[in-house]
Amino acid sequence: MQKMEIDLKKEVREVLTEDLKRYFWNERDEELSNLGAELLLDFIINNIGPYIYNQGIEDSYAYMSERIEDLLSLEKRLR
After folding, report:
1. What's the CA gap between 65 and 70, in Å, rounded?
2. How many domains does the chain have?
3. Of 44, 57, 56, 61, which is closest to residue 6 (Cα–Cα)?
4. Do the beta carbons of residue 38 and residue 13 sit within 8 Å?
5. Is 2 among the domain residues?
6. Kindly report the CA angle at 66 between 75 and 5, in degrees rounded to 5?
7. Which single residue of 8, 28, 50, 77 could bond 12 by disulfide (Cβ 3.0 to 4.6 Å)?
8. Domain carrying residue 50
């Protein structure tokens, strides 16, 4: 499988890092450092992200296939 490169904007990375820190504090009663949150985010992006991305592609393909079938049903019958 080809390595997928996902680049997030700096602002998005900051928000996600803070979300991870908040999650660890609220759910695990642990303080997660900025570095720890950034490393965890990188792990999630690189190891879990491709599965989520591929599922999105499959869902989009299924949706578009249904729309194409809908379009073909509008075809006029020839005499």
Report:
1. 9
2. 1
3. 44
4. yes
5. no
6. 130
7. 8
8. 10-72
